[in-house]
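To fix ideas, we reproduce below one chain and its tokenised fold.
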Amino acid sequence: MFRKAYMRMGLFALVLTPHGALAVEPSGPSAPVRLEIVNATGTSRLACQLVLAHFVTQDIAPIPAGEETVITLRRDLDEGTLTYQRGEGRRMAVENILCGIVDNWRATRNDLNLADLRTGHHANLRVICKAQNSLSCINPGATE
């Protein structure tokens, strides 16, 4: 019964911006920014994931202990929105980036602080992830 009602209603989902307009691919002026994620855990591999608009996620290749990875993003010059583009695909807004230890990602994941990239304080941001009892990812020299 629910299936029939659902099919007749033809439900649509719209993604809205905070201002109530439909979300579209950013087209205004933007500048490249660079995020470096350093795995300083000593022995554990890191798994990181970009959480993008429209409930899309993009996994980043695991980062071995002692290594780092670089993610190239773009920053909207008007609003500070960070965007990610995979290959020739469309640019999508970055909600957040999560990193955790591969073998225990759910319990150790951290939401990286991207405020300095969003506000334009830095065009390059280096985040160092360490693990003692739990994973900690910090931006050395970040504005508080």
Q: What stands out?
A: Residues 38 and 129 are 6 Å apart (CA to CA). The domain at 29-138 is CATH 2.60.40 (Immunoglobulin-like).
